């Protein structure tokens, strides 16, 4: 039976994952020494086991070393395979050098993960200039997609929706969701001027004024993309939008500011947040069960896609 080991902050998600998949839930201990260095101890026996370390990688820097140490300890103590289950995968947006001298952080981050784990499983990584995780990661990387779950939630909760993408790159989710919900869709156009500054152009939406706009995006970070899109929809006389995101990072005042202009905001539980309404554990459990049964899937075949917006978008 697989052993699920949560890194701090991922305990509830890991418990759901273990329950969904019928896996054993283990424990590890971490703390800091007085000098600030990390201490990691595996409290479950990993020898001869397939071990899944569960760690959402939102705001990864403070906890990253203990994750690498935990993976190393699992291998050292005889685990047959060590998988990283990261519902949110970090450092995907700095995928090119936008200004001279910048570190293209997606690459060294992928190298570090690849050297510590045997496999990676994640949900909707921000693939923009990389066509698939196989371009970046040297280990088998399985990508799962949340669009069917977003569609299920919208179909159950929002009558008469208009599915809206805030930029062209969100088109993949928008099309997949609109087709499943059986609703019309529209894509707006975004120009990013800075980390917290975006402009959104909107076509004439007068004919959709009787529908509830549902804004869909992969990531909400500063929230500016969704806030600006919502503002433009309101200018056009549409009702307050519902915002549905895969990864709700909601930096600083993003959530409070977006709340001012939205009817409702929901996210998947890839990043722990009060907006979590869509559970990912069942699809991740199915992916882990497939590994166990020797049907691992591969990252390109699992549907990795290009065309999503980058950090610069
Ligand atoms: O506008 P914020 O919330 O900062 O950033 C999120 C946006 O930036 C893009 O990379 C994402 O795909 C999303 O559209």
TrEMBL record:
A Pfam family that the UniProt record links to this protein: Pribosyltran
Q: Which Gene3D superfamilies match?
A: 3.40.50.2020
Ribose-phosphate pyrophosphokinase N-terminal domain location: 6-114
Looking up SUPFAM superfamilies in the UniProt record yields: PRTase-like
Q: Which domain of life is it from?
A: Bacteria
The protein's UniProt keywords, in alphabetical order, are: Nucleotide biosynthesis
InterPro entries found in the cross-reference section: Pribosyltran_N (IPR029099), PRTase-like (IPR029057), PRTase_dom (IPR000836), Rib-P_diPkinase (IPR005946)
Name residues in a coiled coil.
none
Ranges of residues in domain Phosphoribosyltransferase: 134-239
For the region Disordered, give the residue spans: 294-313
What is the similarity comment for this entry?
Answer: Belongs to the ribose-phosphate pyrophosphokinase family.
State the PANTHER family in the record.
Answer: RIBOSE-PHOSPHATE DIPHOSPHOKINASE FAMILY MEMBER, RIBOSE-PHOSPHATE PYROPHOSPHOKINASE 1, CHLOROPLASTIC
Q: What is this protein's record name?
A: Ribose-phosphate pyrophosphokinase
């Amino acid at each position: 039976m697989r052993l699920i080991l949560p890194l701090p902050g991922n305990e509830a998600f890991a418990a759901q994952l273990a329950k969904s998949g019928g896996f054993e839930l283990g424990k590890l201990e971490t703390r800091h020494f007085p000098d600030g260095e990390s201490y990691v101890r595996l409290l479950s026996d990993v020898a001869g086991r397939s071990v899944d370390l569960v760690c959402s990688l939102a705001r990864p820097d403070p906890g990253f070393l203990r994750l690498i140490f935990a993976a190393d300890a699992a291998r050292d103590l005889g685990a047959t395979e060590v998988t990283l289950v990261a519902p949110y995968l970090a450092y995907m947006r700095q995928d090119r050098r936008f200004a001279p001298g910048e570190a293209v952080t997606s690459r060294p981050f992928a190298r570090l993960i690849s050297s510590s784990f045997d496999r990676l499983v994640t949900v909707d990584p921000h693939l923009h200039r990389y066509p698939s995780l196989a371009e970046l990661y040297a280990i088998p990387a399985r990508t799962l997609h949340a669009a069917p779950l977003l569609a299920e939630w919208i179909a159950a909760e929002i009558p008469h929706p208009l599915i809206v993408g805030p930029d062209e790159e969100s088109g993949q989710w928008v099309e997949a969701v609109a087709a499943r919900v059986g609703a019309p869709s529209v894509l707006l156009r975004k120009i990013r001027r800075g980390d917290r500054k975006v402009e959104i152009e909107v076509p004439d939406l007068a004919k959709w004024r009787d529908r509830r706009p549902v804004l869909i995006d992969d990531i909400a970070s500063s929230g500016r993309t969704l806030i600006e899109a919502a503002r433009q929809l309101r200018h056009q006389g549409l009702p307050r939008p519902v915002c549905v995101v895969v990864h709700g990072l909601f930096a600083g005042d993003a959530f409070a500011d977006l709340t001012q202009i939205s009817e409702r905001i929901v996210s998947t539980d890839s990043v722990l947040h009060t907006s979590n309404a869509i559970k990912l554990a069942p699809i991740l459990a199915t992916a882990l069960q497939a590994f166990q049964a020797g049907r691992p899937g591969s990252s390109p075949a699992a549907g990795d896609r290009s065309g999503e917006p980058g950090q610069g978008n």
